[in-house]
Write a structure and sequence with these properties.
Blueprint lengths: L4 E3 L10 E3 L1 H10 L7 E5 L5 E10 L2 E11 L7 E5 L4 H13 L4 E6 L10 H15 L6 E2 L3 E2 H6 L6 E5 L18 E5 L7 H9 L3 E4 L8 H16 L4
Parallel strand pairs: 1-3, 6-7, 6-11, 7-8, 7-9, 10-11, 10-12
Antiparallel strand pairs: 2-5, 3-4, 4-5
Helix pairs in contact: 2-3, 2-6
Length: 239
C-alpha cells in the first residue's frame, strides 16, 4: 500500500494532536481500515511533510499526532494559471494538473466566449487538495472565484508577465529561451476562442508574450498542461 498523505490546515508541533475532519476520519478508519497507532504523512502547505500517528478516528472526526518533519516545504515558483472554465470534468482536470505541475495560484476567468457562467470554487479547491495529496506536493494552490477577464486585467500588475497561449499562432512550437524568470501567469482561452476585443486588449499589453503550442490546435485542458510544462521546463523549478 502506498503512503497515505493528508492535507490538514493546522499548525504542526511534535506531540500536539491536530484534528481530522469527518471525511478524513472516515477515510482512515473505514476506507483504509487503519487502527490507532498507524502512521501516515500529513502536510499543511507551510511546514513541509510530517510523519503523524493516528490517535483516534470515528464518525464524528478524529485526531492525529505529528511526530517529526519528514520532508522540507517545497513551494512552487510564482506562477499563476489563468483559464476560462470549460466542461465540468475538463475544468476539474485543469485544476488538478495545475496543482500537480506547480501553479501557485489558479484563477478561472469569464471571457467573451466562455461557456460556463459559474463554478463551484469549493469543489475545485478540493480537487487541488487531492492532487497535492496524491503527487507528493507540500503546497496547495488557492483556487479563486470566477471573475471577468476584463476585471482581472483592469487591476493587473504589469510586473507579472503573461504567457498567452494563442491558437492563432498554430505552427512550430516555441521555446522560452531568452525570457526572464520572476512572476508569470499562463493564460488559456475558452473553447470558443478569443473575441477580437480581447485580442486587441491582450496584444496592447506590454507584459504579454504570445506563444504557439505547436502545429495542432489543442483543447483548452491539453493547452494548459502543455503551457505549464513548457514554462516549468524553461523558467520554473524543473531546471
Amino acid at each position: 500500500m502506498g503512503k497515505i498523505r493528508l492535507y490538514i490546515d493546522h499548525r504542526f508541533d511534535p506531540g500536539q494532536p491536530v484534528p481530522l475532519d469527518t471525511d478524513q476520519s472516515h477515510y482512515l478508519s473505514t476506507v483504509m481500515r487503519l487502527a490507532p497507532g498507524a502512521e501516515i504523512a500529513v502536510f499543511n502547505g507551510r511546514q513541509g511533510e510530517w510523519t503523524a500517528r493516528l490517535l483516534q478516528a470515528g464518525k464524528r472526526g478524529g485526531t492525529v499526532e505529528p511526530v517529526a518533519q519528514s520532508a522540507p516545504q517545497l513551494d512552487p515558483p510564482d506562477l499563476w494559471l489563468v483559464f476560462a472554465p470549460i466542461k465540468k470534468v475538463r475544468t476539474d482536470f485543469i485544476v488538478e494538473k495545475g496543482a500537480e505541475l506547480g501553479a501557485a495560484r489558479i484563477l478561472p476567468v469569464q471571457t467573451d466566449h466562455t461557456n460556463s457562467e459559474r463554478i463551484r470554487r469549493d469543489r475545485l479547491q478540493a480537487h487541488a487538495v487531492e492532487a497535492a495529496e496524491q503527487c507528493g506536493g507540500t503546497f496547495v494552490p488557492a483556487v479563486e472565484d470566477l471573475v471577468p477577464l476584463s476585471r482581472l486585467l483592469d487591476g493587473w500588475d504589469m510586473g507579472r508577465r503573461i504567457l498567452w497561449a494563442d491558437e492563432a499562432l498554430v505552427g512550430p512550437a516555441e521555446t522560452l529561451a531568452g525570457l526572464l524568470g520572476g512572476p508569470w501567469a499562463i493564460l488559456i482561452g475558452p473553447e470558443g476562442g478569443w473575441s477580437e476585443a480581447e485580442r486587441r486588449r491582450l496584444s496592447a499589453m506590454p507584459c504579454v508574450h504570445r506563444i504557439s503550442l505547436g502545429p495542432r490546435i489543442l483543447r483548452a485542458d491539453t493547452a494548459a498542461v502543455a503551457a505549464l510544462t513548457l514554462w516549468q521546463a524553461s523558467l520554473g523549478d524543473w531546471r
